[in-house]
Amino acid sequence: MATTKKLRNQLRVTYKAYQKSALEYTKAKGKLNRHIADQFRQMDKSNDGLLSINEFMAALVSYEKSLDSKTVQEFLDAFKKSDADHSESISLQEAIQLQYSFANVPMDGWEIPC
């Protein structure tokens, strides 16, 4: 009987820690999603909800004036990786998915941040 009580207590303590971690994870996802959405909207000069390769590269050049050819190629590769549907543009969802991929975190549903 003592073992059962001990195991129930361990389960209760572990569950409380899980709840705290889940809340922190949800907050971190929200912060990342809002940040990416803000950056995306700033980059989307045509306001069509998509980033063309030109908008993408123009934004990168405005952030970093001295891009060498290796860095430019890395950004082009990131654009291609982001463009999951091969539409030659990046949606907000694709931009957020890329960040989850870079973080090695599965994307388990999301909402477009306001």
Task: Name the shape in a single word.
Answer: elongated
Output the CATH class name: Mainly Alpha
CATH superfamily: EF-hand
Question: How are strands sequenced across the largest beta sheet?
Answer: 1-2
Low-confidence stretches: none
Sheet with most strands:
2 strands, antiparallel
Give the topology, please.
Blueprint: H1 2-43, E1 50-52, H2 53-63, H3 69-82, E2 89-91, H4 92-102
Antiparallel strand pairs: 1-2
Helix pairs in contact: 1-4, 2-3
Explain what this protein looks like in three dimensions.
This protein is mainly alpha-helical and 114 residues long. It has one domain (2-102): EF-hand (Recoverin, domain 1, Orthogonal Bundle), CATH 1.10.238.10. It contains four helices and two strands. A two-stranded antiparallel sheet has the order 1-2.
What is shown here, in short?
With 114 residues, the chain is mainly alpha-helical. Helix content is 68%, strand content 5%.
Supply the key terms.
Recoverin, domain 1; 2 strands; 114 residues; elongated; mainly alpha; two-stranded antiparallel sheet; 4 helices
